[in-house]
Write a structure and sequence with these properties.
15% helix, alpha/beta
Length: 251
């Protein structure tokens, strides 16, 4: 994660990059429990997970998918509640073999998950912010006044070339004025659902959107903002305990 400040010391730009591939953390990252509640900047792969019931396991230390631990950490920046955060899908960037229509639906579902605070715990949604899908666009990632989601390699993104996802957030004061997410289709395989060795678009987008909302990584594997990414995993289709409480608490 990289933070940029203006001359007055105000936060203006945030890059959050999420790493797969497992193994050691990238240089400068520390994902150990001793670092909590400080944010960490690398989402990494923890390998393929087996399926339990209708959902995949979230992590190697979970016996089943459940409400989980109430842990969270966040920045002060946030969506401006009275304004609608409208986002657009660069549908032309969809990797070959993925249905554009299903991918669009999955990306929309990831946004609805946070907007409606859909969670494993059954908590009611007490958050107040507005979010809407604006449709498809040919506009891409970067400072262009349009909130976009799309697929591409990480070159020129401001994130590491091997990041699985990169979210760029522009901030004015404490308000998000633009946020763009790029999912790495150059190095990694994607699926709408579950498949061995592939990342689910909805699950990764839900995690990336958490960064747009100002939430950082946690170590606990039961939360969407967990600092580990899993292939063949759809459990982030619902927020965890910490995610849901943070959503209600911050917004």
């Amino acid at each position: 994660m990289s933070l940029w400040y203006d001359a007055a010391g105000d936060l203006t730009l945030v890059y959050t990059q999420d790493f797969p591939a497992g193994g050691d953390a990238p240089p400068g990252e520390n994902t150990g429990p001793s670092e909590l509640p400080e944010p960490v900047g690398a989402l990494r792969s923890a390998g393929t997970q087996a399926k339990t019931g209708t959902q995949a396991k979230r992590g190697p230390h979970r016996s089943n998918v459940s409400c989980g631990a109430n842990v969270s950490t966040w920045e002060t920046y946030m969506l401006y509640p009275p304004a609608t955060f409208s986002w657009y899908f660069n549908s032309g960037s969809t990797p070959a073999g993925l249905s554009v229509a299903t991918t669009e639906t999955y990306l929309r579902n990831a946004h609805s998950e946070w907007y409606n605070n859909s969670n494993w715990c059954g908590y009611a949604d007490a958050s107040v912010f507005s979010m809407a899908y604006g449709g498809t666009t040919t506009s891409g990632y970067g400072d262009n006044g349009i909130n976009t989601v799309g697929f591409a390699g990480m070159s020129g993104s401001g994130c590491a070339i091997d990041a699985v996802g990169c979210t760029r957030v522009e901030v004015a004061g404490i308000n998000v004025i633009e946020s763009d997410t790029r999912l790495n289709s150059a190095l990694y395989s994607w699926v709408n659902g579950q498949a061995s060795g592939k990342y689910d678009t909805w699950s990764v987008m839900a995690h990336e959107l958490g960064h747009t909302l100002g939430f950082y990584h946690v170590i606990d594997t039961s939360n969407v903002m967990n600092a580990g990414a899993f292939t063949n995993d759809t459990s982030p289709h619902l927020l965890g305990n910490g995610d849901a409480n943070a959503n209600n608490g911050k917004y």
